[in-house]
Sequence to fold (122 residues):
Amino acid sequence: MCKHVLNAQVSIRSPCCRLWFDCAQCHADSQTHTLKQTMEMVFACKKCKKCFRKDMDEFEDSDEYCPHCDNHFVIEAREPKARLEVEGEDVRVDARMLRDERVKRKEELSVWEDEGEANRLG
Fold:
């Protein structure tokens, strides 16, 4: 599972070390050598689990599909985005993290706010 491209449809066999990776960044993270450039790519479809070769010099629109299962593997990559969330229990189990708009909340005062003339000291 690639952490750089969330919707990777194929794995790519690197020509330098003959290992399988989902993207070039995964190869760079795990290997010490640089990725060798080649025009003949070997892919493994993640849908049907079969391997196939593509010549990138003669790549056409029909080559964007797996020859075995017609899985469209040339799609726009979805990359993970940073999010800031509050971790809690499942809301179906514990809904204390959610605000119920039906309940009227009592307005809270801080120590710096004036409650009125009657509660002043001195």
